[in-house]
Amino acid sequence: MYIWSISNKNAFVLQELWNNGPLHNKLGKMLKTKQCDYKRLYEKYVGQMYSYGKALGVDDDALYDLIHDVFLHFFEHQNEIVDNDNVKYYLFRCLKNRMISEKRKEVTMEDIDESDDYLFSITVSGLDYIEEEEERKEIAEQIENMLCSLTGRQREAIYLRYMQELEYDEIAVLLNLTTKGTRKLIYRAIERMREQYGPVLFYFFLSDHFFPF
């Protein structure tokens, strides 16, 4: 299952965020060993941040800016992060907080955390190992229909838990829920998919073929 896989063009632009502009200039002033460490962190997580942002409906230009800002903030405040903190969770939290801040500037209506049924797009791919084209299309359509039966908040919770492997308490912060509420949300999403589409399709959805990260 891929959530907005990165095209060659997107990959180039994301790499350019590192090579040019304030991000590069900032790191150019740091020790060489530190800069290499930061570059490895950037390369490890930038694709996952791009996927998460696209699933939340952010357009490319805005998303590049948000990712750029998040990494600058991370590099400037890394000493404030507890050693055992989950770096991926920290970056996702910063990205979503900044996205919500930008959204609030544009609209004065409900914000993304006040509704269960906001946009969270999951694009089905990674089925190339199925040789028969018709079978591949049929399975992809069934999985998309199964995911569409969930609310946006449920889709995001499933994505964060099973694709990004975040802990329940981390997902709770991202979704503005309690940990108990997050467990209940994910449980109900799983039950809905199993009841409406059967256990076979559901467990096929959870197989390794759909988890590239």
Walk me through this protein's architecture.
- This protein has 213 residues and is mostly helical.
- The chain contains nine helices and no strands.
- It has helices at residues 8-19, 21-28, 32-55, 60-76, 87-106, 133-148, 152-163, 168-175, 179-205.
- The protein is globular and about 50 Å long.
- The termini are close together.
- The relative contact order is 0.12.
- Residues 1-9, 108-113 and 208-213 have low confidence and may be disordered.
Mean pLDDT: 76
Going by helix content, strand content and strand pairing, the class is mainly alpha
The ordered H/E elements are HHHHHHHHH
Query: Ends: how far apart?
Result: 10 Å
Strand content: under 5%
Question: What general form does the structure show?
Answer: globular
Question: Spans with pLDDT under 50 lasting ≥5 residues?
Answer: 1-9, 108-113, 208-213
Helix count, DSSP H or I runs of 4 or more residues: 9
Number of strand elements: 0
Descriptive keywords:
213 residues, mainly alpha, disordered C terminus, disordered N terminus
What does this entry show, briefly?
With 213 residues, the protein is mostly helical.
Furnish the topology, listing elements before pairings.
Elements: H1 8-19, H2 21-28, H3 32-55, H4 60-76, H5 87-106, H6 133-148, H7 152-163, H8 168-175, H9 179-205
Helix pairs in contact: 1-3, 2-4, 3-4, 3-5, 4-5, 5-8, 6-9, 7-9, 8-9
